[in-house]
Amino acid sequence: MTEVPGFEFRTSTACTYENNNPRCVEVATNVPGRVAVRNSVTGRAVEFTAVEWSDFLAGAKLGEFDLSA
């Protein structure tokens, strides 16, 4: 897994690792002003500013990113 310097990633307690499908999203918020999100399988990470992350979470809580059936 590729490490992103300075970030300490954590996984949601809602995520369950299964031997057949260990896919989870990991988030690091320990670096002031920055948030990193990575795929637990590939280790690929994307970095956001704290403002971008807060705006994303606010939109998610309002259902802006819900998938339509």
Write up what this structure looks like.
It is a single chain. The protein is of the alpha+beta class and 69 residues long. It has one domain (10-61). The protein is 17% helix and 25% strand. The protein contains one helix and four strands, in the order ββββα. It has one helix at 50-61, and strands at 10-11, 25-28, 34-39, 45-49. The chain has a four-stranded antiparallel sheet with strand order 1-2-3-4. A hairpin with a 5-residue loop joins strand 2 (25-28) and strand 3 (34-39). The chain starts with 9 loop residues before the first strand and ends in an 8-residue tail after the last helix. The mean pLDDT is 85. This is DUF397 domain-containing protein. Residues 10-61 form the DUF397 domain. It holds the Pfam family DUF397.
Brief summary:
A hairpin with a 5-residue loop joins strand 2 and strand 3 (34-39). The protein is flat.
Oligomer: single chain
Radius of gyration: 13 Å
What's the number of extended β-strand segments?
Answer: 4
Q: What is the H/E string?
A: EEEEH
- What kind of sheet is the major sheet? 4 strands, antiparallel
User: How confident overall, as mean pLDDT?
Assistant: 85
Strand content: 15-25%
Q: Helix count, per DSSP?
A: 1
How many structural domains can be distinguished in the coordinates?
1
What general form does the structure show?
Answer: flat
Can you give the helix content as a percent range?
Answer: 10-25%
Uncertain residue ranges: none
Structural class, from secondary structure content? alpha+beta
Strand order, main sheet: write it out.
1-2-3-4
Distance between the termini: 34 Å
